[in-house]
UniProtKB/TrEMBL annotation:
Lineage, top ranks: Bacteria, Bacillati, Bacillota, Clostridia, Eubacteriales
Organism from which the protein derives: Flintibacter hominis
Signal peptide residues on this chain, from the entry's feature table: none
Enzyme Commission number(s) from the entry: 2.7.2.1
Active-site annotation: D148 (proton donor/acceptor)
Pfam families: Acetate_kinase
Protein name per its UniProtKB record: Acetate kinase
Gene Ontology MF term list: acetate kinase activity; ATP binding; magnesium ion binding
GO terms for biological process, alphabetical: acetate metabolic process; acetyl-CoA biosynthetic process
Length: 397
């Protein structure tokens, strides 16, 4: 079974064609600058990547048609015809309270996704455009929506309720939703396999750390708390996002500098986080380099990030009444040996202790726990595309 996975952004589109049963990736790539001066990257299995500039992609429809043409191309294609694509899995960022799992896309589902647009105005409209473009070009092919928020719908009300007048939840659905759910779900399942135990018996803390970061408490395979909130702006300080702050800061800065809410949110989303503290970069590799050269603000930015993750690990262990394993995933989590060491340092009292030699590995699935650790520390490269493909295949059958 071949599944095409689509992750559509406002001016970009990531794609993979893979077989979820064998986990073989047949081809993958990226359409960029849609509506501007389209750039197309296509990497078939076992061959060199093909990169093209100035590809006519005025809309997502042309971008997806470009992808389909490449997949069946006589020279570099990986399938004989589009009939060999059994289903399409679409990443959808926000499903609100309506979707606790992935679903086959129907007219009713599309309407419900559109109702969630105000909750994710930068993401959901682009996801919808990608779905509609595929529907037009591939009529009759099953389409599945896989939601970033769905995994977190198992959170209890005590975890998702904000201390606001309750009518804002009842009328406007203002609550904690959480994101990166597909990633947290995938790595928790892999953790159970690595530990050789049923996921229903495990208490896990999943740290998805990258330019966007979130930590999730997973008890018995279910999300019971997570750091991102009503929007992906909440929780940890990230590459350029502030994370949790005192809301009164917004009023103070807006009054002092005359910012409107749009400018204030732009600062919180795009000028804050480790970039805002360091003044150097949102890339953790750049921060490590600057720190090694004596840049104190870069060092502070990293310290604030590590401290914030450490606090969440401790609080989530308390929420679950213990923890069996801590998982590191995503760009920083998978590759940042120094970041992992700084985060778990001081948590020895919880039974968390890592082996420095094992921790030196990058980007591979490995247990980096010290021999005398009672809580395992795992590094698991995330694979959201595979998780989307697995869900899609199951529903398409």
């Amino acid at each position: 079974m071949n599944i095409l996975v689509i992750n559509a952004g406002s001016s970009s589109l990531k794609y993979q064609l893979l077989n979820p049963e064998t986990q073989q990736v047949l081809a993958k790539g990226l359409c960029e600058r849609i509506g501007i001066d389209g750039k197309f990257t296509y990497k078939p299995e076992g061959k060199q990547a093909v990169k093209e500039a100035d590809v006519a992609m005025p809309t997502h429809s042309e971008a997806i048609q470009t992808v389909l043409n490449a997949l069946v191309d006589p020279a570099n294609g990986v399938i004989g015809s589009m009939k060999e694509i059994d289903a399409v899995g679409h990443r959808v960022v926000h499903g609100g309270e309506k979707f606790a799992k992935s679903v086959l896309i129907t007219d009713e589902v599309m309407a419900a996704i559109e109702e969630c647009n105000p909750l994710a105005p930068l993401h959901n409209p682009a996801n919808i455009i990608g779905i509609k473009a595929c529907q037009a070009l591939m009529p009759g092919t099953p389409m599945v929506a896989v939601f970033d928020t769905a995994f977190h719908q198992t959170m209890p009300s005590v975890a998702y309720t904000y201390a606001l007048p309750y009518e804002y939840y009842e009328q406007d659905k203002v609550r904690r939703y959480g994101f990166h759910g597909t990633s947290h779900k995938y790595v928790s399942q892999r953790a159970a396999a690595m530990l050789g135990k049923p996921i229903e018996e495990l208490k896990l803390i999943s740290c998805h750390l990258g330019n966007g970061s979130s930590v999730t408490a997973i008890d018995g395979g279910k999300s019971v708390d997570t750091s991102m909130g009503f929007t992906p702006l909440a929780g940890l300080p990230m590459g350029t996002r502030a994370g949790d702050i005192d809301a009164g800061i917004m009023e103070y800065l807006m009054n002092k500098y005359g910012y409107d809410i749009k400018e204030m949110l732009n600062i919180l989303n795009k000028k804050s986080g480790v970039q805002g503290i360091s003044g150097v970069s949102s890339d953790f590799r750049d921060l490590e380099k600057a720190k090694s050269e004596g840049n104190q603000r870069a060092a502070l930015a990293l310290d604030v990030f590590h401290y914030s993750v450490k606090k969440l690990i401790g609080s989530y262990a308390a929420v679950m009444g213990g923890v069996d394993a801590v998982i590191f995933t995503a760009g920083v989590g998978e590759n940042g040996a120094g970041d992992r060491k700084a985060i778990v340092s001081g948590l020895e009292f919880m039974g968390i202790k890592i082996d420095d030699e094992k921790n030196g590995k990058r980007g591979e699935e490995i247990d980096i726990s010290a021999q005398d650790a009672t809580v395992r520390t795992l590094v698991i490269p995330t694979n959201e595309e595979l998780m989307i493909a697995l869900d899609t295949a199951e529903l398409a059958k």
